[in-house]
């Protein structure tokens, strides 16, 4: 454990060890050391004894925290120890607070991910307020467990599992950047079990949702109806742009799809008619917008509105359902009326199932014609369901072309 009077130049010149880490103690400042990891990360740490036990506290990262700032932090921490109190809960420096590190992680590790906005929302809503003012280095395994268990205990097990995954990646990234030394979530099991959703709305239920959407009107009403007609994902329709509508189809770039692949959705006669009836908000390119600047948000509130209207139309609430169930309902309905599985998967934009492995590499047929036939048949099925007509017999050729 080398000890010497550190200077700014000396701190800059210190090279990382060939392996592990090395502590360089600052002469005249007992317990203050510059910890240098073999990866090149440098951090100011303070070793102290409290109630007979040796502790180590990370004060901040270098060069974000200068030598002078490290010595000031050492003085504050040492004064706290002198009072018989732990300095671990002291107000963190901006660079090493959990909130600061989380924001840096979102910017550097998540910004280019398609789900970046959702990850940010989950972290801000569930974590930042709980750990505001905390040093990331002081967050323990127990802290993480308490946080995640709290989310699971309110009945949001799926959200708790997502939060587990996001935090695990955040802490692992922080270790790799030299911000913390140990990931407190290593080998920490996820809460509960993954929920496999299989809710499919019956014909009468789908009719109620369609009619409820009709009644709530712009902008969420037609958005929900377009979800039903196209079997698209919520965000694909919610953030739809006029520029993405090319004639009688929707063309989505890879950045707008879950699998990162470009995807086209043919517009049935009913879907095209619905879109033609929508208003243009100023010069906005968003199809569904209220302010002309951003796409619609507040789907949860809109879903509650649909449920309230549906309950009146149905003489009681529908069994629990989610907006994503409309996509599963469409897929199931398409199979029921005779559409082949490969066509349905192409329509949904799936790259799993029958399109994986060697088939996925060599079978590049787009099924554009079959997708158009399928959605036209589906729109007629929706019309039949909403009008209460008996089921029609679907010709076998709708299963796709013979090979």
Structure keywords:
3-stranded antiparallel β-sheet; single chain; 3 domains; alpha+beta; hpI Integrase, Chain A; Double Stranded RNA Binding Domain
Task: Provide a short characterization of the protein structure.
By secondary structure, the chain is of the alpha+beta class. Helix content is 45%, strand content 11%.
Structure description:
There is one protein chain. By secondary structure, the protein is an alpha+beta fold. The chain has 3 domains: 88 residues, Integrase, DNA-binding domain (Double Stranded RNA Binding Domain, 2-Layer Sandwich); 79 residues, DNA polymerase, domain 1, CATH 1.10.150; 197 residues, Orthogonal Bundle (hpI Integrase, Chain A). The protein contains 15 helices and 8 strands. Helix 7 packs antiparallel against helix 8.
């Amino acid at each position: 454990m080398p000890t010497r009077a550190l200077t700014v130049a000396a701190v800059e010149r210190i090279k990382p060890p060939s392996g592990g880490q090395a502590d360089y103690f600052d002469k005249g400042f007992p317990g203050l050391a510059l910890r240098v990891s073999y990866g090149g990360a440098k951090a100011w740490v303070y070793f102290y004894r409290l109630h007979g036990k040796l502790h180590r506290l990370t004060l901040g990262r270098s060069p974000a925290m200068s030598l002078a700032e490290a010595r000031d932090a050492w003085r504050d921490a040492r004064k706290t120890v002198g009072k018989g109190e732990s300095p671990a809960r002291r107000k963190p420096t901006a660079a090493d607070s959990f909130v600061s590190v989380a924001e840096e992680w979102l910017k550097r590790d998540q910004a280019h991910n398609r789900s970046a906005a959702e990850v940010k929302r989950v972290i801000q809503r569930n974590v930042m307020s709980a750990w505001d003012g905390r040093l990331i280095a002081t967050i323990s395994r127990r802290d993480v467990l308490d946080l995640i268990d709290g989310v699971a205990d309110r009945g949001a097990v799926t959200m708790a599992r997502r939060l587990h995954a996001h935090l695990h990646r955040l802490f692992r990234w922080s270790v790799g950047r030299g911000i913390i030394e140990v990931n407190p979530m290593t080998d920490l099991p996820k809460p509960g079990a993954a929920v496999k959703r299989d809710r499919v709305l019956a014909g009468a239920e789908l009719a109620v949702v369609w009619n409820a959407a009709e009644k709530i009107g712009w902008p969420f009403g037609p958005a929900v109806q377009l979800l039903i007609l196209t079997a698209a994902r919520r965000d694909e329709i919610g953030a739809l742009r006029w520029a993405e509508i090319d004639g009688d189809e929707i063309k989505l770039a890879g950045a707008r799809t879950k699998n990162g692949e470009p995807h086209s959705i043919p517009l049935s006669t009913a879907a095209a008619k619905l879109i033609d009836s929508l208003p243009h908000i100023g010069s906005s390119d968003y199809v569904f917008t209220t302010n002309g600047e951003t796409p619609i948000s507040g789907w949860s509130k809109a879903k509650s509105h649909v449920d309230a209207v549906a309950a009146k139309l149905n003489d009681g609430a529908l069994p629990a359902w989610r907006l994503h169930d409309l996509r599963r309902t469409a897929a199931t309905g398409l199979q029921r009326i005779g559409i082949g599985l490969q066509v349905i998967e192409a329509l949904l934009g799936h790259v799993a199932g029958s399109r994986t492995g060697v088939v996925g590499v060599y079978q590049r047929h787009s099924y554009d014609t079959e997708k158009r036939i399928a959605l036209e048949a589906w729109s007629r099925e929706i019309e039949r369901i909403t009008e209460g007509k008996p089921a029609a017999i679907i010709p076998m050729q709708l299963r796709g072309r013979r090979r």
